[in-house]
Amino acid sequence: MLVEASAYSLARCKLENLLNKSMRIRMTDGRTLVGLFLCTDRDCNVILGSAQEFLKSTDSFSQGEPRVLGLAMIPGHHVVSIEVESDSLQMTTHGL
Q1: CB atoms < 10 A from the CB of 83, how many?
Q2: How far is it, in rounded angstroms, from Cα 23 to Cα 85?
């Protein structure tokens, strides 16, 4: 029981450290959303703030203009991958 509680605490701490970091979420339909990580739940739904949507490009060289969404909820079953933007992590590391 103690090991389970410490694993939960560690996971919670890791998630708390990601709050307000810029994330890139790829979805099952090919879209990519980029925004600030605000919260998640036990079903792996994710809330992004200041989100922008990038459509799947038919031309690998052009990304196109992003569509501004603002606050967005991504259902967990539509998430393919989640990446934390490296710029967001560097700001935390350098204490900015």
Answers
A1: 12
A2: 5
| Residues in the chain, overall count | 96
pLDDT tops 60 at residue 33? yes
pLDDT above 70 for 41:
yes
DSSP assignment, residue 20? T
Above 60 in pLDDT, residue 71? yes
Cα–Cα nearest to 66, from 28, 40, 37, 32: 32
According to the 3-state scheme, what is the secondary structure of 46-89? EEEEEEEEECCCCCCCCCCCCEEEEEEEECHHHEEEEEECHHHH
Cα separation, 95 vs 63, whole angstroms: 32
Which DSSP letter does residue 1 get? -
Backbone phi, psi, residue 69, to 5°? -105, -30
The amino acid sitting at 74 is I
